[in-house]
Every structure is written in C-alpha cells, then in structure tokens.
Amino acid sequence: MAFPKVADARKLNDEELAQEIVNAKKKLFQLRLEQTTGRLETPHQFKHTKRWIAQLLTVQGERQRGVSNTTQA
User: Fold this and answer.
1) How far apart are CA 24 and CA 10, in angstroms?
2) pTM of the model
3) Which of 12, 25, 27, 38 is the most exposed place for a label (fewest CB within 10 A)?
C-alpha cells in the first residue's frame, strides 16, 4: 500500500475531508485494540495512519484559516 499524499487530501471537499478524518481515527482505534489483544500483524500501520491523520488535519486547518497552498508535495 502506498502512502497517501497530502495532494490526495486537498482533492477532497469539506464533508469528505471530515469523514476521512473520522475514518482514520477509527482505524487508529482499531489498531490500538488489536495491539492490546495481541492480534496486530502490521505495527507499521500506526505510523501510516497517524501521518495520514496529521495531513488531513493540516488541510482542514488551512481551509479554516483561509490559507491557499498551491504547492504540490
């Protein structure tokens, strides 16, 4: 699975962005639950999911502040 890019997050509209944040946080919760119960097979997913959440929240914050970032990462 490839890393999601911040450009992918910028393509989402506000409702999709909010829903994606909720979905990513649910995934992180599931990963923590699996780790606690000893069923976690992919511990690297923590890093991937946290990074994706950070990118989504950054884009959401930019939109709330009215910042237009045209640079593509």
Assistant:
1) 16
2) 0.84
3) 38
Give just the sign of the alpha carbon dihedral 25, 30, 34, 36: positive
Question: pLDDT tens digits, residue range 12-23?
Answer: 999 999 999 999
Q: How many CA atoms lie within 13 A of 53 on its CB side?
A: 14
Q: How many CB atoms lie within 10 A of CB 49?
A: 19
Q: Give the pLDDT confidence score for residue 3 in this predicted structure.
A: 79
CA dist., res. 34 & res. 39, Å (int): 5
pLDDT digits (tens, 9 = 90+) for 31-68: 999 999 999 999 999 999 999 999 999 999 999 999 87
- Name the one residue in this structure whose structure tokens are 């910028």: 10
Output the CA torsion sign for 40, 42, 43, 47. negative
Residue 17 in tokens: 């962005």
